[in-house]
Each structure stands twice: as structure tokens, then as C-alpha cells.
Amino acid sequence: MRxxxxxxxxxxxxxxxxxxxxxxxxxxxxxxAAQTQDLSLSWVGEMLVPGKQExxxxxxxxxxxxxxxxxxxxLEIDEGPVRDFWMRGTVDSDxxxxxxxxxxxxxxxxxxxxxxxxxxxxxTGSIVSEGLAIDAEIDCRAIERIALTPLRSRELNRSAxxxxxxxxxxxxxxxxxxxxxNREGDVLEELGVFLRDEILWTSTALTLDDSLFRxxxxxxxxxxxxxxxxxxxxxxxxxxxxISQDRMDHRTSGLGAxxxxxxxxxxxxxxxxxxxxxVTLQTVDYSVPGLIYLAFDGDSFWSQSWFDSRIYxxxxxxxxxxxxxxxxxxxxxxxxxxxxxxxxWVLMSDPFQGxxxxxxxxxAID
Length: 366
What we know:
By secondary structure, the chain is mainly beta.
């Protein structure tokens, strides 16, 4: 189902108009304005195949000078894989056209977006690829893009994954154990958690609330000729004692908790699930493809994009409130996110180099 376009004017669109006005007022040649304005624009939205139930979502991020831009899109068609593409094209006040950037990668097919842009930044148009059998309508809205300069960073000489914040310290996992770290990134404690048969276990999703950790154990169940990918939510104490194991009806790729509410980022279908003892109490749809890991501050969800490491903030109704990007470049992979005390911590990991880096970011949460 398509969402109504936001009636507020996004900051990205305001910035586009202001820069254009300043450039025009400083020159007698109207053509100079288009040559000097800088663009940094983002959209998220939905894809719909006319006459079919097939739908999907996409995110678009472009930067450039004048009307020429290049950037990246990530898209997911239901029941299909998430894919990303390098794009280039033009952005005018009322139209956006993007095509594959073959200077960066020799794609063996075509892909293009041709959309009208209204004064509020809403895009409506088409996305077409003969080679990928895509012929869909798109409906996207502009979202605010916010640059964040890390307050501090700390490199670990080990590959780590997942993050959780206990109000004082951070928790992560590496080499089969959970790590407690202070905010400077110093390892204060290593904790081993054993499942049945004395199996040492760490989770690829982790959160902490009410003095209990929650992680997950992935599993697949066969029945009626189908295979279901599910997760068991495992709760354990700070001393490593497992106290419960509850099966969910989906596979998770991130867990976030606050104030007794436990949420799961479904690995398929772009859904957030509020769960209790494994039972889904509420489901929220969102429109950003390719998210992984989850943090919840009681009001907003925070998640990382696997494809470009950007951080998305999503409200309780599934609406994207903004996209954040660090002002430093890290060549690792997204590996975890946590929030608290007006801060976000993100973990980037490079398993090939055997290192990980924690970044502490300050966010203006209104």
C-alpha cells in the first residue's frame, strides 16, 4: 500500500532551492546557477508492478554539481534478492533521470529511473530493466540526509560483531565470547555463554533490556515441502546463564529493546516485529531495503544499510525520519549498532584484515 506524501518540505529540497537562488543572484548568466549548485539528495519509497501483487522498495542517494549527479540505489522486489547499483544522470527541479554508471562497473544489462519530482521532493515515475525483467512504477519521498562527525573512534585488533549498550558500557562479540567495553573501546570483560551440550554460543543480533541480554539462534524447519528460516530468541543474564529460549515465526537480522518492548528486524519482507516470548504482538512495515542490525531508543528504530553503511532512523509507524552518514570513510562492513544517552555507536568490521572499529556519534533526537 502506498503512503501519502509527506506535506512537510524536506530539508534536502529546501537546501536545493536556496543554493540555486544564491547562485543565480550572484551571476548575470542564468546558466551559471546550474553550474555552481551542489546537490546531496536522498529518497526512499515503493515499487509496484501494475496489475500484479508484486511490489518492492528502493532507496536512492545521489550527489553532484549543477544538474549532473551520480550515486547509488538499493532495491528489493518481494520474494527476490536485495541488489545495489551505481547510477548517474540528471536532477532538475521537476524531473529525475538515472541510468547505470558503466564507468564504474560493466553491467551486462540496462536499468533506468525516469520520474517527475514535485515541489515537496516526491518522485513518481518508472524503473525499467529488460535484462532484470523489471518494469515497475515508483513512488518515493525525499528524506533528510544528515552528516555526522564521530566524537571518537577506537580500533580493535580483532574481528567483532553486534553491539548493545547497558547504560554504562558497550557489549560486542568476538571469537566465541561476548566482550564488555567502556566507551573508549577498552575491553573490560569477556563472557562465555553455553547452550545445551556445552556449546559456546554468540549471537549475530544482540540487545539488552531489564538486565537481560537477548540474542538469537538461527534455524531452518522443513514441512509440507517448504523450508522456513526462523530464529529462537535466547535470553541470558550478565553472568552468562541462559534462562529462556523462545521460537519466533521469522528469521531476525537485528534485535532492539527499550522499556520492556522487544523488537525484531525481520530478515525478509521489510518488517519490524514486536515480540514477547517469541510471539509476534505487532508488525510494522517500512520501505528501506537492505537493512541489518537494530537499535531501539523507546521512540525510534536505528538500523544500518548493509550496502552503503548509512544509518536510518525510523519511527514507530515505519516512516523514515532521516538518513545519517559518517564524515569519515571506513572500508569495513556494517557489524552492529547501539543507542543511548543521545548517542549512537556503530561498529564496522573487516574480517579479512582481522580488525574492527567503534564509532561514537552524537545525534540530535527531537
